[in-house]
Amino acid sequence: MYNLGALEATANQESGSRIFLYEVVGLRQSEEADQTNYPIRKSGSVFIRVPYNRMNQEMRRLTRLGGKIVSIQPTNALELNGKSSSESVDEVVNNVTSDETANIEGNGQATPVQANSEVKSFGKSLDSEQEQPKKDKKGNTMTQAKAKHADVPVNTYRPNAPFVGKCISNEPLVKENGIGIVQHLKFDLSGSNLKYIEGQSIGIIPPGVDKNGKPEKLRLYSIASTRHGDDVDDKTVSLCVRQLEYKHPETAETVYGVCSTHLCFLKPGDEVKITGPVGKEMLLPDDTDAKVIMMATGTGIAPMRAYLWRMFKDAERAANPEYQFNGFAWLIFGVPTTPNLLYKEELEEIEQKYPDNFRLTCAISREQKNPQGGRMYIQDRVAEHADELWKLIKEEKTHTYICGLRGMEEGIDAALTAAAAKEGVTWSDYQKQIKKAGRWHVETY
Asked: Is 401 annotated as catalytic?
């Protein structure tokens, strides 16, 4: 998920100026926000490109819009956080303007990445009005509080020096009479230094050039495998990819996503340019007694699969003696038809083997009806179980993960608003609290 900032045009005109990428969360639509020329989402991250000489001004403006800057990075160390498994990223990220071209032959050298590779400590040098560092309830400064993710690998391979891996397998996930093409791809990472953990993403650089004759830019996809890979040998990474297909709004011509089409038709042995990993928003808690609520649509199942394998797969549990999940996981999964239930057999196997620890609830929109007689979407399932979900969400050990189409969030919020109101709680306020506590994780596109 990548949104270009309102200042991109200005940034590009200032030759020689340093450009920084702000990752901002919490922006809400308002009268002032309506006047901006970049998209504002109701949750998740917005990425804004800012020239150095306007950083202070932009910080203050974003604060007025209710936003919180969670990271600042120079564009030559670009981390596209939170990427999505959706192929709609194909066209969004394709608009990224970067001097880091992707037409590099051969494998790039792994970029030396320190534990705290993300840009920090801009506050005092850029804003004289900055207050003293805030502390959390345990007395740690905010930078100390964030240190728990300091060892998460980030940007081992960058767009100007990707790792060239090979496709090991490319298997269809949609059964007969299903809608669209969705593939499970496994790539060989042998010879690379690329390490990742559940909830992160990798970038894929498709071959060829774009409509402007420039090398194609990377697209981000959520990783669908655990840190050990599908073969539990630390040598592979897997993706769940849907071929993007849509009608051109003016010509009605069918358009296919560049990168998603490239991936969906790879053959074993084909080479693929890989960057990353990136992302820290969707990481699982270390607590083996945690309660994990997962809400996914379509290929948003990718990170959820990685979580579930880490929690329940026998080979994974054997490989992780320090992490033996004893908590509770609930997946609410939305798809259009039964043949589109991605990883159906895997999910049912876990449900059968761990009935006390895993619960699967499906919303099959074109086959099931909601109480109003319309199609059954994921937000309808959330409304159906809202009181139970609200009870779980209130527990300190509960983490909630949402991944998939952006439109699902409004309905989920509406259902939980009604459930919370029964106890006199304002859901929007409570949601802010658990976001701040790191228990509400969203990656939508």
From this structure: no
